[in-house]
Write a structure and sequence with these properties.
Chains A, B, C: Keywords: ATP-binding, Kinase, Magnesium, Metal-binding, Nucleotide-binding, Thiamine biosynthesis, Transferase. 3 copies of one chain form a homotrimer. By secondary structure, chain A is α/β, with parallel strands linked by helices. Chain A is about 50% helix and about 15% strand. Chains A and B meet through helix 5 of A and helix 2, strand 2 and helix 11 of B.
Chain lengths: ~260, ~260, ~260
């Protein structure tokens, strides 16, 4: 498995972060054994990408003026053949739809991680996205993320009570029903950073998406069991687990099914 | 009471946040049962306000270039008749005074939440504001926040060892002497977000300000009792309480007096 | 010692922060008894510096457009003879090298706090900096930070398993081997803010750097002992210690040697 490779190689993960949740994302990457880099300046992007093993672009607090920076970051990563992960926060909102379309004209994403409403947008389904929350009216069907994967040629990681990981051909479902985690803002952003850490150490991005999602689910379960329905304690407890969890624990805890 | 309405309706609260404390603010709104939206891009403000039930503007890390964005946010909210809350961090500083004056020419605020020095500024009293901290030389008199409410036509929530909530006619005092909370940066910002969550589910903004302040005081007391004089543990413990506290607990714990 | 002076005088510490870690930095300064100010707007810099007792500039998330703001902040502080602290995150990267050179042409720094790779850069040693992490290939020799201090005329605080504090003439080594702390993103940024708090209450910046580093080391040890190898619990536990630790505890715990 890949977790031990991360802990041995300490890959550098360059993040264009959601400014709200960036401390958690940086901590999570660090707890895992990888090393977070956060940059907000286009002039240093070329040299930052050059030393990185993965790039994670999160549009949670996107700004129009940063589009050239994100395109540059993605294009250099594409040329260097290092993985580029997209977290398309609230992409079904009209302005964000337009922003992501412009971004995807210039950058090839290797993995896209979002909730059901966000992922459905990539399949051309126009759900009435309600901000950051998944539209629960979309029934979670593997067919939709599969279609999104086929159209984007990216590995899709769709998160929710059941996570779906697919490259359009093969698909896994990972049970991950963790309401205490869902009430913490940024758990999805954190997973996107973790996916970046896994994709940094393999060329098999489907496997990276699967193992990162299994890790997050198992660590979340262990952490939730410790905090006794106190969600304010969960993020620190989750960090403890990202630091300490073993591959054996992940295998034992995860409920994974290939479809 | 309004807390159960929030937990049933999950209103969307759009925040122009203090970037220092925005993770806590977003988490607090989420723990309460509402849903936080954070935006930093003027181009998406119209559609963001349209789906929101309240708007919270915090000037803790204000930038000159964001003034048009804040005016737009406030004006659209005013037209849509959704509540606009102002957190006037350090408004007695000269540049911030000027900034807020320009903002208030264009936007009507429904609730203003600040410490005694900040609230006194709205009553035309020029205290020598010392950054983010309240000027303790201002004796906390209900007459000052009342005057601020009358001049701004906003509900005033003045926080300190005793909180004052007033619309210029009716006034309440809520005992809330919590030194462990005061030493945590952002507890005021968090309350402003919580006030937004309450104002989102009623047209009675005075009642919203009162119930939000009672909730924060009661949750703060319960959390402080748990952490045994360890202020670093308080914010997670406060989040637990925002998630779990009942209206009955709030009524039992709160020391409220109408004047 | 200076800690009691901070707790009595509550100095204002103005920060140009790393946006990733700014909540921890502000909290740490507050827990200690000082008062954090964070600004991102050049127009208010003159009045902000005027009420502050120290200025801390962290380039962790530097942006080209903020250079004039940082120069203004530093120059006004220099003129007012209040201390200016630099945290030169990843300064060995080419763009950041250039940025810091331009900044240092205009601003005199009184204290510079960084890891071994960052400090070596000021001595003219071009290590291949790997992002935010220290290049462990640099053997930690007191001679390098001494040379950096002589060339910059600043007090140098070099952090690592052993911290080195030097003004180029006198040098101390403080044992501070805390892997749980190192895995938390922002512990260095936090120390820079703490150094600012100490430098705010004395003109002896070497003593300020030494006492701040001893405090951080002792508080980190006490906190680590409490969290039982759970690094996610460490930052809250460290905040508890910054709030509660006594000068007597610091003296008893610290392993300090003058060279």
């Amino acid at each position: 498995m890949l977790l031990e490779v991360i802990r041995k190689k300490h890959p550098l993960i360059l993040n264009h972060a959601n400014t709200v949740t960036q401390q958690h994302v940086a901590d999570g990457i660090s707890m895992l054994g990888a090393s977070p880099l956060m940059s907000q300046e286009q002039l240093e992007i070329p040299e930052m990408v050059k030393i990185s093993q993965a790039v994670v672009i999160n549009i949670g607090t996107l700004q129009e003026t940063t589009l050239p920076e994100l395109i540059l970051m993605g294009q250099i990563a594409n040329q260097a053949e290092i993985p580029v992960i997209l977290d398309p926060v609230a992409v079904a909102m009209p302005y964000r739809s337009d922003f992501v379309k412009r971004l995807m004209k210039e950058v090839k994403f290797d993995v896209i991680r979002g909730n059901a409403a966000e992922i459905a947008w990539f399949a051309g389904m126009s759900s009435q996205g309600q901000g950051i929350d998944a539209d629960t009216r979309i029934e979670v069907q593997t067919s939709i993320p599969k279609r999104s994967a086929q159209l984007t040629e990216a590995v899709i990681v769709q998160t929710g009570a059941t996570d779906v990981i697919t490259d359009g051909k093969r698909s896994w479902r990972v049970k991950n029903d963790n309401p205490l985690l869902a009430v913490n803002v940024g758990s999805g952003d954190l997973l996107s950073g973790i996916i970046g850490s896994f994709a940094a150490v393999t060329k098999d991005y489907l496997q990276a998406g699967l193992e990162a999602t299994m890790l997050m689910g198992a660590a979340g379960q262990l952490a939730s069991a410790k905090v006794h329905n106190q969600p304010g304690q969960l993020m620190p407890a989750l960090m403890d687990q990202l630091y300490a969890i073993t591959e054996k624990q992940i295998e034992q805890i995860s409920e994974v099914n290939e479809e």
